[in-house]
Design brief:
179 residues; alpha+beta; four-stranded antiparallel beta sheet; 6 helices
Length: 179
């Protein structure tokens, strides 16, 4: 198990898993990450959320996790990694009413500051009922359930340019990750 003293508990959010033909079994993901030296890796829900212990920075954990997944599954793996305190702070800073009937509350994690600027600029184009606000390295948004894919942010997220640097999670999912 190694020395836990210098371990940090991280959330690793896999991008584009179980959509678009990349179907991974979460048990195999855990096995690949444990094989790469990440003790205590476990998945939350089946949508590419992993909590694991790692040494070093979030950036080094991200690199190591991406190469382990690319090697194990032969796909272009993109992973965004944050320590759990950071995830908690992001979730607590959600600027809208978190539970609104008929709406989804989302957090889009963005690793590239230029991409965050671009996404933030879309706030002016928000559709009816869609709310968009910038946070620290994230974009907060809320959208009517029926309009997620048709929303300003929903349409933009599908573009190839955003694949490597963004991933979106429901606020409820983040609550499960933090439990």
């Amino acid at each position: 198990m190694g020395n836990l003293a210098n371990m940090t508990r991280y959330a690793a959010f896999l991008r584009g898993v179980n959509v678009g033909g990349v179907n991974l079994k979460m048990a195999e993901v855990v096995a690949a990450l444990r094989g790469a030296g990440f003790d205590n890796a476990r998945t939350i829900l089946a949508s590419g959320n992993v909590v694991l212990d790692g040494r070093g920075s979030a950036a080094s954990v991200r690199k190591k996790a991406e190469s382990a997944l690319r090697e194990a599954f032969g796909y272009e793996a993109w992973v965004l990694v944050y320590d759990l305190d950071t995830v908690a702070a992001i979730a607590e800073s959600y600027p809208f009413e978190p539970e609104v009937e008929g709406h989804h509350s989302y957090v889009t994690f963005v690793s590239d500051p230029a991409v965050l600027d671009e996404l933030d600029a879309l706030a002016d184009q928000a559709r009816s009922g869609e709310k968009i606000a910038r946070g620290d390295g994230v974009l907060y948004w809320q959208v009517p359930r029926s309009a997620t894919l048709d929303s300003t942010i929903g349409k933009t997220m599908g573009k190839k340019r955003y694949k490597s640097s963004t991933t979106t999670r429901n606020l409820r999912t983040l609550g499960r990750v933090l439990r």
